[in-house]
Design a protein that fits this description.
By secondary structure, the protein is mainly alpha-helical. It has a domain of 29 residues. 87% of the residues lie in helices and 0% in strands. It starts with 5 loop residues before the first helix and ends with a helix. Keywords: Cell inner membrane, Cell membrane, Cytochrome c-type biogenesis, Membrane, Transmembrane, Transmembrane helix, Transport. One of its GO terms (biological process) is cytochrome c biosynthetic process. Belongs to the CcmD/CycX/HelD family.
């Protein structure tokens, strides 16, 4: 579509308000989606790291329990 001037471009044949409103709403929605996705990814990474640390603590605790029970058997 060809416009004679910038004001004609912004007016969009009388539908400029609706056109630019649609662009604005779409832009805001996309920005919010990006922000939400970044936050969700950070939360997921923190949850994963917490779970990995928990698994390591459990494994270390089991290893200590096994070594303690072996020492107790050797003493008896």
């Amino acid at each position: 579509m060809h416009f004679d001037s910038w004001s004609a471009f912004w007016a969009m044949g009388g539908y400029g308000f609706y056109v630019w409103l649609a662009f604005g709403v779409s832009g805001v929605a996309l920005v919010l989606l990006i922000v939400q996705s970044v936050r969700a990814r950070r939360h997921l990474q923190k949850s994963w790291q917490t779970e990995q640390a928990r698994k390591q603590r459990i494994a270390a605790s089991r290893a200590r329990q096994q070594s303690n029970s072996k020492l107790a058997e050797e003493v008896d």
